[in-house]
Specification:
The structure is a homodimer. Chain A is of the alpha+beta class. Chain A has helices at 3-19, 22-30, 38-44, 49-62, 86-105, and strands spanning 36-37, 65-70, 73-78. In chain A, α1 runs antiparallel to α4 (49-62). Chain A binds a DNA duplex through residues 21, 23, 37-39, 42, 47-58, 69, 71-74.
DNA sequence: ATATCATTTGGCTATATTGCCAAATGCGCA
DNA sequence: TGCGCATTTGGCAATATAGCCAAATGATAT
């Protein structure tokens, strides 16, 4: 793996890393039906404003979401909605894993 | 988010986290064309055997790959190949990000 | 049985991530 | 202009992750 390829894999990993957190995953799924205000995330998740804000920054810096400021509020929306398609495969992995564990108990 | 849902998001995040590392991503893509021996990864990546082995353990525990021991060697293969479909979307995110940055420079 | 090879595991240090608090910012309204 | 609200930023302590070395394991071949 040369330097160029290495940087490319690091960039790819950064995108997946942005998704790889329960709170951020929840936010991304929430955005499936369109734009939402930061305040909604804070209300529904039991976290500090600052914590949510930092999670949103991670998603924004990865290029997954974008923010739209309107009035006092900030709304976030998915910039690249194809990430939603990951979910069914992630669930397939979890199911396969559950089956394997069940098989070991037999 | 109740306790049950929380655990579910943690499990999903675990799968994505397993993919969210340059070396592991490289390994997963390498497995696109089928089974490969651990020794091949060690040869092609400039890492210690133990480092590669731990990365493989992360992928295995997440349910993404499975190991097949034959003779002295251990071969790994994708257990749930749909993860390969993530790549094009990850690249779409990167491209969208590149465009945004380019736009800012104008 | 023993030596050998491929891989895994344990242990360690360095680095990265998370989540809270407090303080700073930015916008709209009185 | 100056206040108040929504959000972001800075800073810190706790925890998690990465990668190296050395030692342990497990199968094969002698």
């Amino acid at each position: 793996m040369d330097e160029r390829e290495k940087r490319r894999y690091e960039a790819k990993a950064k995108v997946l890393k942005a998704l790889a957190h329960p709170t951020r995953l929840w936010i991304v799924e929430k955005l499936a039906d369109g734009e939402h205000c930061v305040c909604e995330f804070v209300n529904e998740l039991e976290h500090d404003f600052s914590t949510i804000s930092k999670h949103l920054a991670v998603l924004r810096e990865a290029g997954i979401v974008q923010d739209n400021k309107r009035g006092k509020q900030v709304f976030y929306e998915l910039k690249v909605p194809c990430v939603l398609r990951f979910m069914s495969c992630v669930e397939a992995v979890m199911e396969s894993q559950a089956m394997t564990h069940a098989a070991l108990l037999e």
